[in-house]
């Protein structure tokens, strides 16, 4: 059975638009790409077909969306047909999983998927960036690592400690691994304060892009030096006043909802609950999800307590690490066992823990 995307009418700075809302798989790259094409003035010259599709009704199918995006891809390039067909064959994977490898200097490894985003002239960005302004000797070197290369280093540590592998630069590997592990622990949601600053300073004004964070993708907009993500959670479908969520903090404590004209939006918890019940049925809602919708203040309190607890544990861990021998470095964190943490940070009201949009 073909998957469907619901649609929502929004007004952004006086202009009427229709956007796509995420389904049960969470915010995927396909959804973020489509919404950029729907909203960005720089892409209207070839997004007319997509706009007509989304304006047809309250939902569109995954198949229809992929077909229209493929047509757009053929219109915007002068590459040979064999090359473009190979790129467009990746479109269905935007909904399932991508070979995305973020590098800790703010860039990505140049994979075929990155070429696909370039085809549509849409930037893919992230804020999982190491602060090179402090501890320059260490962090400058670590910034050249990517997620994949960091995992390889952590795997090497296990081999060195077990005696399987002997390397002339074992001390260097062990040192890098210790700092990389600390970096992972300090950025469990794949975003850093330095990364936020990096995005604010490098993204052009009044432009759309796709933000990769916490193994998800969302539509990002920079407006008057501030960063906003498009709210595509289905639970907010009936909340016309909620269009954006600010991206002001790593832990979510400084984030807020905004209307299409970037004025502060009012969050009506009962309206959210009624809309969700009407479309999915109360029996399909977990009690915790309903409470999350109704209690925004309690959520903020929990986030603050969780962040404080994490910082306390991290400081304790740093002290312990400083007294450990190098052979005592933790076992490597394998790529397929990286856990998603801080689920409370997500505005999604009914999301399973396993997302289809993952680092492959």
From TrEMBL:
Protein origin, superkingdom: Eukaryota
Classification via InterPro entries: MINDY, MINDY_domain
Ranges in a coiled coil: 286-324
Location of the MINDY deubiquitinase domain: 4-262
Molecular function (Gene Ontology), one example: K48-linked deubiquitinase activity
Any single Gene Ontology cellular-component annotation: cytosol
GO-annotated biological processes: protein K48-linked deubiquitination
Keywords carried by this UniProt record: Coiled coil, Hydrolase
Entry annotated with the keyword Transport: no
The keyword Coiled coil appears for this protein: yes
Pfam families, A to Z: MINDY_DUB (PF04424)
Name of the protein in its database record: Ubiquitinyl hydrolase 1
Species this chain originates from: Saccharomyces paradoxus
Source species taxonomy: Eukaryota, Fungi, Dikarya, Ascomycota, Saccharomycotina
């Amino acid at each position: 059975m073909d998957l469907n995307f619901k649609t929502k009418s929004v007004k952004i700075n006086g202009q009427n638009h229709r956007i796509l809302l995420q389904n049960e798989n969470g915010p995927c790259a396909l959804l973020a790409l489509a919404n950029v094409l729907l909203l960005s003035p720089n892409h209207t010259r070839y997004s007319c077909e997509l706009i007509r599709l989304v304006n047809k009704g309250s939902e569109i199918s995954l198949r229809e969306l992929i077909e229209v995006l493929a047509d757009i891809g053929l219109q915007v390039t002068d590459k040979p047909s064999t090359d473009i067909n190979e790129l467009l064959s990746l479109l269905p994977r935007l909904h399932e999983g991508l070979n995305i490898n973020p590098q800790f200097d703010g860039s990505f490894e140049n994979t075929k998927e990155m070429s696909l985003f370039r085809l549509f002239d849409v930037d893919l960005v992230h804020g999982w960036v190491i602060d090179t302004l402090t501890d320059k000797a260490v962090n400058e070197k670590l910034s050249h690592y990517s997620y994949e290369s960091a995992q390889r280093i952590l795997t090497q540590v296990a081999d060195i400690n077990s005696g399987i592998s002997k390397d002339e630069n074992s001390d260097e590997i062990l040192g890098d691994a210790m700092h990389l592990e600390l970096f992972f622990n300090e950025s469990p949601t794949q975003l850093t304060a330095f990364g936020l600053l990096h995005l604010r300073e490098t993204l052009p004004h009044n432009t759309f892009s796709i933000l990769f964070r916490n193994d998800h993708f969302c539509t990002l907009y920079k407006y008057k030096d501030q960063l906003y993500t498009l709210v595509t959670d289905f639970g907010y479908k009936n909340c016309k006043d909620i269009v954006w969520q600010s991206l002001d903090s790593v832990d979510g404590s400084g984030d807020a909802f905004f209307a299409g004209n970037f004025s502060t939006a009012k969050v009506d918890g009962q309206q959210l609950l009624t809309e969700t019940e009407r479309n999915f049925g109360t029996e399909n809602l977990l009690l915790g999800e309903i409470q999350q919708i109704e209690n925004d203040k309690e959520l903020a309190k929990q986030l603050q307590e969780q962040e404080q607890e994490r910082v306390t544990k991290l400081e304790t861990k740093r002290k312990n690490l400083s007294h450990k021998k190098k052979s005592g470095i933790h076992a490597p964190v394998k790529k397929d066992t990286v856990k998603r943490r801080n689920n409370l940070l997500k505005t999604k009201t009914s999301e399973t823990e396993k997302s289809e949009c993952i680092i492959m």
